[in-house]
Amino acid sequence: MGIGFAHRRQSSTVATPPGRGWSEPAAQLAWMTAVATWLAR
């Protein structure tokens, strides 16, 4: 999964995209942290 996908998904929905395996809270938190880290660069 690249930065482009993360940014695109972040702009459309911060919730869990179905079928991507982000239903687990830990995985979702890690994804949101990655997005926040990229935005803070």
What is this entry, summarized?
Residues 1-10 have a biased composition (Basic residues). It is built from 2 helices and no strands. It has 41 residues and is mainly α.
> How many helical stretches?
2
Q: Can you give the helix content as a percent range?
A: 55-70%
Give the overall silhouette. Answer: rod-shaped
- Rg (CA only): 10 Å
Seen as an oligomer or otherwise, the chain set is single chain
Spans of at least 5 consecutive residues with low confidence: none
Global mean pLDDT: 67
Main sheet makeup: none
User: Order of helices and strands, N to C?
Assistant: HH
Total beta strand runs: 0
User: How far apart, in Å, are the first and last alpha carbons?
Assistant: 18 Å
Report the sheet-strand fraction. under 5%
- Total separate domains: 1
Helix and strand content put the structural class at mainly alpha
Biased composition (Basic residues): 1-10
Region (Disordered): 1-23
Write the layout of secondary structure elements.
Blueprint: H1 3-12, H2 25-39
Describe the protein's architecture and organization.
- With 41 residues, the protein is an all-alpha fold.
- The protein has one domain.
- Helix content is 61%, strand content 0%.
- It has helices at residues 3-12, 25-39.
- The longest helix is centred in the last third of the chain and has 15 residues, at 25-39.
- The mean pLDDT is 67.
